[in-house]
Amino acid sequence: MLHTKINDIFTPKVLEDLLPLQRSDEFFEALYGDADEGAYNISLSFNNYDTAQNRLFFEIQLHERPGKCLACNLTYGLPQVFSRHPLINIQGLVEKIVTLLGADIKSSGWELGHTRTPAANMHTIPLTIRLRQLK
Questions:
Q1: How far is Cα 132 from Cα 61, in angstroms, rounded to an integer?
Q2: Overall domain count for the chain
Q3: Could you give the 3-state DSSP secondary structure of residue 47?
Q4: 40, part of any domain
Q5: Residue 49's beta-bridge partner residues?
Q6: Given 13, 62, 101, 116, which is the most exposed site by the fewest CB atoms within 10 A?
Q7: Residue 134 falls within a domain, yes or no?
Q8: Domain range for residue 58?
Q9: Is residue 33 part of a domain?
Q10: What is residue 70's three-state secondary structure?
Q11: Which DSSP letter does residue 65 get?
Q12: What does residue 93 show for φ and ψ, rounded to 5 degrees?
């Protein structure tokens, strides 16, 4: 059963492999031409699995870099940017996540929510993945 093994799958190491820290530098290099211009590091966090709705809930976390101002950046438009940006590659990320669940599980879609601000030095973007079990 998927629920019993889900927390064993999405360990901190696996999450870092799915969205490596160097992706932040690559993103800012593409965006600004200089990775040092980036105000935050991008990481992935697993929240939970809803068995009733068969959905996985993750967060893309934006952690303020030392000496930078996360609040000064336009992070509220990022869900639209991230959903299309080839370096962030949400579709590819979702495919890798679902592959970890086994051959009998597939995605029936995903969505990015609105940017949230749980702390002054961290913003989050919810990522929901809908799953379906193959027969």
A1: 26
A2: 1
A3: strand
A4: yes
A5: 56
A6: 13
A7: no
A8: 2-129
A9: yes
A10: coil
A11: P
A12: -60, -45
